[in-house]
Amino acid sequence: MKELGFRKETAVGRYLDPFNNFQEKQVTFEARYDEITGVASRILPYRVRIAQKPDVDSYLEKSPESLCPFCPGLFEKLTPKFTPDIIPAGKFQRDVAYLFPNAFPYDQNNSIAIFSSRHFVPLDELTPAFMQKGFKVCGDYFHRMAQMNLGYKHCSINWNYMPPAGGGLIHPHLQTMAGLKPTNYVRHLLTSAQNYAEASGGNLWRNLIVQEREAKERFIASTGSISWLSSFAPKGMAGEIDFIFQEKSSFFELTEANFDELLNGLAKIFTYLYLNNFMSFNMSLYAPMINDKHFWVQGKIVPRFEINPLGTSDINYFEKLHNEVICPVVPEELCRELQPYFS
Ligand SMILES: [Zn+2]
Q1: Contact yes or no for 38/188 (Cβ under 8 A)
Q2: Boundaries of every domain in the chain
Q3: What is the pLDDT of residues 28-51, one digit of tens each?
Q4: Quick one: which of 191, 211, 234 has its CA closest to 329?
Q5: Does the domain at residues 56-309+330-342 carry the CATH identifier 3.30.428.10?
Q6: Whole-model pTM above 0.85?
Q7: How far is the CA of 74 from the centre of ligand 1 (A)?
Q8: Which of 113, 256, 315, 318 would bridge with 99, disulfide CB 3.0–4.6 Å?
Q9: How far is the CA of 72 from the centre of ligand 1 (A)?
Q10: Ligand 1 mean position, distance from CA 160 (Å)
Q11: How far apart are CA 82 and CA 80, in angstroms?
């Protein structure tokens, strides 16, 4: 098996420490690069703990139910509808969950799915039962897109939960994309998988899971068909959790049981985040719509937060303009902290 591309270098920062009589202090950090994802991260050894939960009440004051387009009062009036050729009813519906076009699209097929009419749902109430219909209605939409034979090859289900993660509305909602081309990041993953197969004849994701399981450093758990991993080079300041579906090379190969397994795992991660004073995350699930033997359906969760007392963003020039992530959460520690939630 060809070795998979995790690179790291250790470096030392030195200064005279004002908190210790200006004695010399050395701080060791790691510059990591993941060749599979193309992500570069600086792993810092000094852990930043979020001391208190952000103030949800101020969000609710600024964005009350009465002004929310996803709450029952304005939902029918203010949410867009699909043209009848896509769905005569105008919206996809699964019980209390709905999917409809994004009023501010950034892709040809960019939709929003709400889970229910509940305006604010705290992290610890994002249970599998609560999330189930929201993910199902996304599946209904992708099935309809496939049925319409438009040649779409790539889809994703995405989530900005709460404002620190870019959520423009408090009301929990997913965003879907379906189209001919992958996004820039997914293209990188597809290319890595293709190159790996050409060079070694193997499947990148199968071998990555074998490698990570044996290394026992970042392999959080297997829940049956899904492997849960802490990313070697995270895309977020608070780390990154990856999930990879074993042997699933298209969205349409996912069964109901696979989705239940995914939502159970997500709920465990959300519980961990809730208990550690987070209240926000980004999530994406990437899937081919036409079988791609080199790619396995997979996704990521990145916790997001504001840094008090100023509400400072967790994204700065280093990530925005240098494409490197400063991560004061050691991925191997994040893995150990998450493992008990999966046992
Ligand atoms: Zn609402």
Answers
A1: yes
A2: 56-309+330-342
A3: 999 999 999 999 999 998 776 666
A4: 234
A5: yes
A6: yes
A7: 9
A8: 113
A9: 8
A10: 15
A11: 7
pLDDT tens for each residue of 58-80: 899 999 999 999 999 999 999 99
Residue type for position 10: T
How many A from CA of 314 to the centre of ligand 1? 26
* Distance from the alpha carbon of residue 119 to the mean position of ligand 1, in angstroms: 4
Parallel, antiparallel, or unpaired for β 324-327 and 39-43?
A: parallel
Instruction: Give the closest residue to 37 by CA, choosing from 321, 302, 334, 328.
Output: 302
